Every structure is written in structure tokens, then in C-alpha cells.
Amino acid sequence: MKVTLAAISCGIGLAGGLLFSGSGTATFAGGCGLSVRQIWLESFTAEADTPDNCSGSEITLRVRNRTGAVVHNSTYPVSDLFGFGDVDTPADMREALEEWISRYPAAATTDRLPAWREGEAAPDHREFPFYADDGISRERYEQIRQEKRLLHCFVQGGESLLCLTPDDRGDGLEVIGIQSFPG
């Protein structure tokens, strides 16, 4: 099974000159439980874990800052994630997890997000629109975009990427929105 998730990121113009964020590590914890770690946004550690019960039914993603504090935590049903459809064995799961957590550009920045023009209800819509997070105003979105912050987007469903950026302090993460892609 070979899943090519890096190509998905072209929806927000990240595909030009893809740079990958280093090599991830994977270790089995007991029976079938798997833990994969990767550095995101230069200083955050992303950890993707599967349960030790061999069900392979869900993945927990935790992102920690430099001090080890969890700044993002979410659980995803494997059946809802693009790229996990052919996972039948622990080896398949390991490959899919490594691909999911490590195959994204390290050099993406928020200025590559679509503009959100004054008077519009959302950022510019294209064939595969970007949806700003419900808690982000147009002014905040444009501020973050103009600051050219590091940006990390990862598959969080069958047809979308969740995009994170460091918060104003730099020790937390802010969800900026969701990028759709063909699923």
C-alpha cells in the first residue's frame, strides 16, 4: 500500500517546492498499538497513536509544544480519513500513519492562503475552497495571513485538511481553517 498524501496540499498552493519536515519515528507499543512522532512547524511534536487492542478503528493525534504541553488533541475514526482505506494489517497502519504525519511541506506559510476580501463572507472560493475556522474573523484571518506564519495542514477527513499555525505567543497552535480537496 502506498499513499501519496503530499500531492493533496496543492489545494492551497503548497505544492510548489515541497519540503518535508524530516523523518518520523514509529514504535510498536505492546501488541498492535502504534505511535508515530514527527516535528511540525519547527518546534512542535506531533504524535499519532492507535489503540493497543488491534482494532485500528481510530487514531489519536496530539501535538505538544517545546515544554511538552499538549496544544492540540483530536481523535479521528480511521474510516473517515483519506489514505487509510486499504489498511488491513499493523504494517499497513504503520505505513499509513507515517505517511499521514510526515509527508507535508515544512516551508508552507500563511501568506499562501486565499485572501478574504472586505465585504465577503469567506476567503476567496476556488474549485476547492478554504473555509476559515468559525472563531476567526476576517480581520484576524488577514492579520495571520499577512504575518506569513508557518502553516501546517494535515488530512482530517475524507476530503479536507485541517490547517494549524502557531498562536501569537508561539507556544500554542491556532486552527485557521479547513482546506477542501477532491476525495
Describe this structure in words.
The structure is a single chain. This protein has 183 residues and is mainly beta. The chain folds into two domains: 16-102, no CATH class; 110-180, no CATH class. 12% of the residues lie in helices and 31% in strands. The protein contains two helices and nine strands, in the order E-E-E-E-E-H-E-H-E-E-E. It has helices spanning 90-102, 138-146, and strands spanning 25-29, 33-40, 44-49, 58-64, 70-77, 130-132, 152-155, 160-166, 173-180. A hairpin with a 3-residue loop joins strand 1 (25-29) and strand 2. It starts with 24 loop residues before the first strand and ends with a strand. 35% of the residues are buried.
Average the pLDDT over all residues and give the rounded result: 79
Order of helices and strands: EEEEEHEHEEE
State which percent range the strand residues make up.
Answer: 25-35%
Tell me about the largest β-sheet: 5 strands, antiparallel
Brief summary:
The chain is mainly β and 183 residues long. It has 2 domains: 16-102, no CATH class; 110-180, no CATH class.
Layout of strands and helices, then pairs:
Elements lengths: L24 E5 L3 E8 L3 E6 L8 E7 L5 E8 L12 H13 L27 E3 L5 H9 L5 E4 L4 E7 L6 E8 L3
